[in-house]
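Standup notes
- DV: blocked on the single-chain target, sequence here:
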Amino acid sequence: MATIALTADNLEATIENNDIVLIDFWADWCGPCKMFGPIFEAASEVHPDVTFAKCDTESEQVVAAQFGIQSIPTVAAFREQILVFSQPGALPEDALAQLLTQLKALDMDDVRKKIAEAQAQAELHGDD
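- DV (later): unblocked, structure below
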């Protein structure tokens, strides 16, 4: 599967309608982004069960701001509509493959349980 262009218009639907979404935040002027692009594209061909999305931070500044992107490239990953990974820096091919393996192996019931526990602790301590 090829990558899709992630925009403010399709962001919500992309995350809601796909089990795993991997996002590459990039810009045309960014050298490391240009080096990472082919790696990201190649992985999209190997993992058709994952939605690969590219977000141009120049044309989609609102989306980049929503994610707090301060450095590019940044890779973010959603699994079952939960942001489970976000890291700046271009990933080497093997690190991207390892990330995809880990995303697919995540126990999402455990992830949701840990989120609920953290929220309960925050409420207990009066944090919002």
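- Follow-up: The chain has one domain: 4-124.
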